[in-house]
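USER:
Try writing one entry.

ASSISTANT:
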Amino acid sequence: DDSVFFQALEPFILSGLILSLPPVVLKALIQYYVKGENHPSTNMGDNGDLLTEIICTLDIKLLDIDLAIQLCKQHDLRECLVYIWNFVLNDYQTPLIEFFVDINNNPSSADNFKIYTYLSYILTGRQYPIDKFINNDMAAKKSICDILFTSSTISSVPTRNGNTIFPYLYTLLKFDSLEMLSCINEFFEDL
């Protein structure tokens, strides 16, 4: 039975005793938590958080990256996906671009506010969402600043108002000024 297997496996992964899983087991584990079978009374949000914690605990460099990205996209596990982009692929711009796409396409979504948490983490040298320090934090900060403080629009990055100077900074300030100013404050305090 899958539920017995994954419930027995879960504490060993979370405690760090198991650091890698074969791709077949990883795929089954993700599908198990996405379906909500581990705790029928909980919703996907709770299982998504637990799954994020599990994936962030595993030695992700040993994972089948294509499979992990595909499953995270398929099941809308954004924090896992961001972690894979950042930690494994050393790509800090793609998650930011994805946040801008979401802000443009669905400005009323509550998930859009995670962009400020993401910016705070990266601009202070911490890995999102696990709060560990980034090995090459200056490169990560630079990649984020290259988008935020560009004076013109970038074709692959959507913005609400491309006619202003610093269109991405403007977009985030317009979306939630207090949160953006808080991110900038944290960034400057960390320098």
About this structure: The first helix runs from residue 2 to 14. The CA atoms of residues 32 and 97 lie 29 Å apart. DSSP finds ten helices and no strands in the chain.
